[in-house]
Amino acid sequence: MARISGVDLPKDKQIWVALQRVYGIGSVSSRRILASSGIDPQVKVKDLVEEQVARLRGVVDKEYKVEGELRREVRLNIKRLIEIGATRGTRHRMNLPVRGQRTQTNARTRRGARKTVAGRGQKRGVSKK
After folding, report:
1. Lowest mean pLDDT among 28-37, 73-82, 99-108
2. Rounded CA gap, 75 and 63, in Å?
3. What angle do CA 23, 24, 26 make, to 5 degrees?
4. Cα separation of 33 and 56, whole Å?
5. Nearest 10 degrees: CA dihedral of 102, 105, 110, 111?
6. Does domain 68-111 correspond to CATH entry 4.10.910.10?
7. Model's pTM, two decimal places?
């Protein structure tokens, strides 16, 4: 079983796809890692030799910031934005979209479930004008 940066890679996937399970590695960086370590991207994880896994581990550890280290850096960046009072930090603190998306509609994922507010809506017995 191939284990890179504390993540078990799925055995039946091609290595370029399986590497994307590691936080901080996407498709482009996955292919770059494989090119620099000299491994065919189409080979399945279960077919890798231990020496190839060691090369992959070496490239990832030496050249890329992944998993815990990257998560910590992102968390500290957000904390810094909040502390300096930047608009992005304020949006993070209020659990609102940070990158300019609209919030009057379509922000349910970020804002959470609807909260009912008393006094909203149509009054009973009042006709439209």
Report:
1. 99-108
2. 21
3. 105
4. 7
5. 120
6. yes
7. 0.75
**Second-level CATH architecture of 3-64:** Orthogonal Bundle (1.10)
Tokens 């603190």 correspond to 93
DSSP per-residue string spanning 48-106 = --HHHHHHHHHHHHHH---HHHHHHHHHHHHHHHHHHT-HHHHHHHTT--SSS---SSS
Q: What is the pLDDT of residues 54-75, one digit of tens each?
A: 999 999 999 999 998 999 999 9
Could you tell me the residue ranges of all domains in the chain? 3-64, 68-111
Residue pair 96/107 in contact (Cβ under 8 Å)? The answer is yes
**Among residues 22, 24, 18, which one has the least CA distance to residue 47?**
18
